[in-house]
Amino acid sequence: MSSPSILSKTTLLLALLASLASVTIGFQSRKLTELYQQQPELLTYHNGAVLRGDLPISVLWYGQFTSAQKSIISDFILSLTVTTQAPNPSVAQWWKTIDRFYLSKTVKNNGPKSTNMLLANQITDEKCSLGRSLSLSQISQLAANTKPRKGGIALVFTAQDVTVDGFCMSRCGLHSSNKKVGYTYIWIGNSATQCPGQCAWPFHKPIYGPQTPALVAPNGDVGMDGMVINLASMIAGALTNPFGDGFYQGPKEAPLEAATACTGVYGKGAFSGYAGNLLVDPTTGASYNANGAHGRKYLVPALFDPVTSTCATLV
Question: Model pTM?
Answer without folding.
Answer: 0.87
